[in-house]
Design goal:
The protein has 170 residues and is of the alpha+beta class. It is built from five helices and nine strands; from the N terminus they run αααβαββββββββα. It has helices at residues 3-20, 26-33, 37-43, 57-65, 157-169, and strands at 49-53, 70-75, 80-85, 90-93, 96-99, 107-109, 114-124, 127-136, 141-146. Helix 1 packs across helix 2 (26-33) and helix 2 (26-33) packs across helix 3 (37-43).
Length: 170
Amino acid sequence: MNVASEVSSLDAKIDAAIAAKPDGILEVMAETAGASLLQVMERLPDDSVKLVSAEKFDDTWKSLQGWGEVLFIVHTDDIVLECTGSLPDGSHGHGYFNIHGDSPIGGHIKASNCKAIAIVDRPFHGRRSCSVQFMNQNGNAMFKVFVRRDKERNLLPQQREAFDQLKRSA
Protein backbone atom coordinates (compact mmCIF):
# COMPACT_ATOMS: atom_id res chain seq x y z
CA MET A 1 0.00 0.00 0.00
CA ASN A 2 1.44 3.39 -0.90
CA VAL A 3 1.48 6.45 1.37
CA ALA A 4 -1.35 8.22 -0.49
CA SER A 5 -3.71 5.26 -0.12
CA GLU A 6 -2.75 4.84 3.56
CA VAL A 7 -3.65 8.50 4.17
CA SER A 8 -6.87 8.11 2.19
CA SER A 9 -7.75 5.00 4.19
CA LEU A 10 -7.09 6.78 7.49
CA ASP A 11 -9.13 9.80 6.38
CA ALA A 12 -12.00 7.46 5.47
CA LYS A 13 -11.83 5.79 8.91
CA ILE A 14 -11.81 9.19 10.63
CA ASP A 15 -14.72 10.43 8.51
CA ALA A 16 -16.70 7.28 9.35
CA ALA A 17 -16.01 7.72 13.09
CA ILE A 18 -17.16 11.35 12.93
CA ALA A 19 -20.27 10.42 10.92
CA ALA A 20 -21.20 7.68 13.39
CA LYS A 21 -21.48 10.14 16.31
CA PRO A 22 -20.85 13.73 15.13
CA ASP A 23 -21.40 15.17 18.62
CA GLY A 24 -19.48 12.45 20.43
CA ILE A 25 -16.18 12.31 22.27
CA LEU A 26 -13.30 13.16 19.96
CA GLU A 27 -10.89 10.79 21.71
CA VAL A 28 -13.30 7.90 21.08
CA MET A 29 -13.43 8.85 17.40
CA ALA A 30 -9.63 8.90 17.31
CA GLU A 31 -9.37 5.49 18.96
CA THR A 32 -12.03 4.04 16.65
CA ALA A 33 -10.19 5.30 13.57
CA GLY A 34 -6.69 4.47 14.82
CA ALA A 35 -5.77 8.15 14.58
CA SER A 36 -4.56 10.92 16.86
CA LEU A 37 -6.94 13.47 18.30
CA LEU A 38 -5.34 16.16 16.13
CA GLN A 39 -5.91 14.07 12.99
CA VAL A 40 -9.60 13.85 13.92
CA MET A 41 -9.78 17.60 14.53
CA GLU A 42 -8.25 18.22 11.11
CA ARG A 43 -11.18 16.30 9.54
CA LEU A 44 -13.92 18.18 11.42
CA PRO A 45 -15.90 20.85 9.55
CA ASP A 46 -13.93 24.11 9.20
CA ASP A 47 -16.23 26.02 11.55
CA SER A 48 -15.68 23.44 14.32
CA VAL A 49 -11.97 23.90 14.91
CA LYS A 50 -9.36 26.55 14.35
CA LEU A 51 -5.73 25.49 14.73
CA VAL A 52 -3.26 28.02 16.08
CA SER A 53 0.52 27.83 16.18
CA ALA A 54 2.12 26.57 19.40
CA GLU A 55 4.09 29.83 19.36
CA LYS A 56 0.87 31.40 20.72
CA PHE A 57 1.09 29.33 23.93
CA ASP A 58 1.84 32.26 26.25
CA ASP A 59 -0.61 34.64 24.56
CA THR A 60 -3.37 32.05 24.66
CA TRP A 61 -2.71 31.23 28.32
CA LYS A 62 -2.80 34.95 29.15
CA SER A 63 -6.12 35.31 27.32
CA LEU A 64 -7.62 32.35 29.17
CA GLN A 65 -6.63 33.88 32.50
CA GLY A 66 -9.24 36.58 31.92
CA TRP A 67 -12.10 34.08 31.72
CA GLY A 68 -12.49 33.55 35.46
CA GLU A 69 -13.18 30.02 36.68
CA VAL A 70 -12.88 27.58 33.79
CA LEU A 71 -13.19 23.83 33.48
CA PHE A 72 -9.65 22.43 33.12
CA ILE A 73 -9.51 18.86 31.80
CA VAL A 74 -6.70 16.36 31.39
CA HIS A 75 -7.91 13.35 29.37
CA THR A 76 -5.66 10.29 29.17
CA ASP A 77 -6.38 6.65 28.43
CA ASP A 78 -6.76 6.12 32.16
CA ILE A 79 -8.53 9.18 33.52
CA VAL A 80 -10.54 12.23 32.62
CA LEU A 81 -9.53 14.67 35.34
CA GLU A 82 -11.75 17.73 35.66
CA CYS A 83 -10.89 20.73 37.78
CA THR A 84 -12.67 24.06 38.10
CA GLY A 85 -10.60 27.14 38.83
CA SER A 86 -8.99 30.25 37.43
CA LEU A 87 -5.80 29.86 35.45
CA PRO A 88 -2.96 31.33 37.51
CA ASP A 89 0.07 33.20 36.21
CA GLY A 90 2.84 31.13 34.76
CA SER A 91 6.49 31.51 33.92
CA HIS A 92 9.01 29.50 31.99
CA GLY A 93 11.84 27.87 33.92
CA HIS A 94 13.71 24.58 34.19
CA GLY A 95 12.10 23.32 30.97
CA TYR A 96 8.52 23.88 32.11
CA PHE A 97 5.78 26.48 32.11
CA ASN A 98 5.27 26.68 35.86
CA ILE A 99 1.86 27.70 37.15
CA HIS A 100 1.25 28.66 40.76
CA GLY A 101 -1.24 30.77 42.58
CA ASP A 102 -4.45 30.79 44.52
CA SER A 103 -6.20 28.21 42.33
CA PRO A 104 -6.71 24.47 42.43
CA ILE A 105 -5.06 24.48 38.99
CA GLY A 106 -1.30 24.34 39.41
CA GLY A 107 1.75 22.43 38.31
CA HIS A 108 4.28 22.32 35.53
CA ILE A 109 3.50 22.10 31.81
CA LYS A 110 6.09 20.97 29.28
CA ALA A 111 5.13 23.83 26.93
CA SER A 112 7.90 22.90 24.50
CA ASN A 113 5.89 19.72 23.73
CA CYS A 114 2.99 21.81 22.45
CA LYS A 115 2.57 21.31 18.70
CA ALA A 116 -0.62 23.31 18.16
CA ILE A 117 -3.52 24.92 19.96
CA ALA A 118 -7.02 23.92 18.84
CA ILE A 119 -9.92 26.28 19.37
CA VAL A 120 -12.85 23.86 19.26
CA ASP A 121 -16.48 24.93 18.86
CA ARG A 122 -18.76 21.97 18.19
CA PRO A 123 -21.80 20.14 19.45
CA PHE A 124 -21.19 17.70 22.29
CA HIS A 125 -24.11 15.43 23.16
CA GLY A 126 -26.52 17.90 21.58
CA ARG A 127 -25.17 21.10 23.14
CA ARG A 128 -22.64 23.66 21.98
CA SER A 129 -19.26 23.01 23.55
CA CYS A 130 -16.37 25.50 23.44
CA SER A 131 -12.82 24.62 24.40
CA VAL A 132 -9.19 25.50 23.86
CA GLN A 133 -7.07 22.37 23.59
CA PHE A 134 -3.29 22.34 23.76
CA MET A 135 -2.02 19.54 21.53
CA ASN A 136 1.27 17.67 22.01
CA GLN A 137 3.77 16.39 19.46
CA ASN A 138 1.87 13.09 19.17
CA GLY A 139 -1.32 14.91 18.24
CA ASN A 140 -3.05 14.31 21.56
CA ALA A 141 -4.35 16.80 24.10
CA MET A 142 -1.94 17.92 26.79
CA PHE A 143 -4.86 19.63 28.51
CA LYS A 144 -8.11 21.39 27.66
CA VAL A 145 -9.80 24.54 28.91
CA PHE A 146 -13.59 24.59 28.54
CA VAL A 147 -16.14 27.36 28.77
CA ARG A 148 -18.16 26.50 31.87
CA ARG A 149 -21.92 26.02 32.11
CA ASP A 150 -24.53 27.41 34.47
CA LYS A 151 -27.04 25.35 36.48
CA GLU A 152 -29.27 25.03 33.41
CA ARG A 153 -26.25 23.65 31.46
CA ASN A 154 -25.99 26.77 29.28
CA LEU A 155 -22.56 28.18 28.47
CA LEU A 156 -21.65 31.10 30.73
CA PRO A 157 -22.27 34.20 28.57
CA GLN A 158 -19.11 36.13 29.50
CA GLN A 159 -16.88 33.11 28.89
CA ARG A 160 -18.69 32.30 25.65
CA GLU A 161 -18.07 35.86 24.46
CA ALA A 162 -14.39 35.66 25.47
CA PHE A 163 -14.12 32.34 23.62
CA ASP A 164 -15.74 33.82 20.49
CA GLN A 165 -13.31 36.77 20.64
CA LEU A 166 -10.32 34.43 20.97
CA LYS A 167 -11.57 32.37 18.03
CA ARG A 168 -12.00 35.48 15.86
CA SER A 169 -8.60 36.93 16.74
CA ALA A 170 -6.61 33.70 16.45
